[in-house]
Amino acid sequence: MVSEERIAVWDARDRLVEELTRTDCLPKRTLYIRRDDGGTLAVGLLPERRGYLLVEWRGAAYQTTLLCQPALVIEPYEQEGDRFGGMFGFGEKGAHGWLLRIEENGKSVAEATLLPRITAFADLTAKEDRFFHGKRRVRRIPLWQLRPEPADMCEAALSIWERLLQEGG
């Protein structure tokens, strides 16, 4: 990513944070999942159990949606290995994980796959979240905190978020 692109991404992030701060919608806890297409899906728990914020992020563009009573649907997902199965940098390794779908009133509003040790993700409280609550770093891009985690970490985060959405925060 070249310097101008980083600046554009940081400018977009700053606009988003300013907008969320102004409307009192800055999440107190957020689940981030990097999508296969390079974008990032973020689901944030709003302060005082007022709902959830869904952010679909791609480069310097983002879209936000406020959700009142979303549901997290978790289904098993299997990524088939192809070509050389990831050897020599070619193809994809096979993997077992989950397809996550966020629904509002029974209608799907977003989805992403989470594959242990492959998909970059993070479950962060406001104190740990450098995307919404951190300072601008010129040489880094927003959402650099995301990284692949082992299956037990993925399962723990999914369990927490399934409960948070089910209980309404």
Quick recap:
With 169 residues, this protein is of the alpha+beta class. It has helices at 3-22, 130-133, 151-167; strands at 29-34, 40-45, 52-58, 61-67, 70-79, 95-104, 107-114, 120-125, 147-148.
What features would you describe in this structure?
With 169 residues, the protein is of the alpha+beta class. It has a domain at 3-71 and 120-167. It has helices at 3-22, 130-133, 151-167; strands at 29-34, 40-45, 52-58, 61-67, 70-79, 95-104, 107-114, 120-125, 147-148. The strands form two sheets. It has a six-stranded antiparallel sheet, with helices on both faces. It is globular, with a radius of gyration of 16 Å. The mean pLDDT is 87.
Poorly predicted tracts of residues = none
- Coarse shape: globular
Number of strands: 9
The class by helix and strand makeup works out as: alpha+beta
How many helices? The count is 3
Fraction of residues in helix: 10-25%
Separation of the first and last Cα atoms: 36 Å
Largest sheet: spatial strand order: 4-3-2-1-8-9
| Biggest sheet statistics | 6 strands, antiparallel
How much is the average pLDDT? 87
The SSE order reads: HEEEEEEEEHEH
Rg from Cα: 16 Å
Strand proportion, as a percent range, falls in: 35-45%
Helices and strands, with pairings:
Blueprint: H1 3-22, E1 29-34, E2 40-45, E3 52-58, E4 61-67, E5 70-79, E6 95-104, E7 107-114, E8 120-125, H2 130-133, E9 147-148, H3 151-167
Antiparallel strand pairs: 1-2, 1-8, 2-3, 3-4, 5-6, 6-7, 8-9
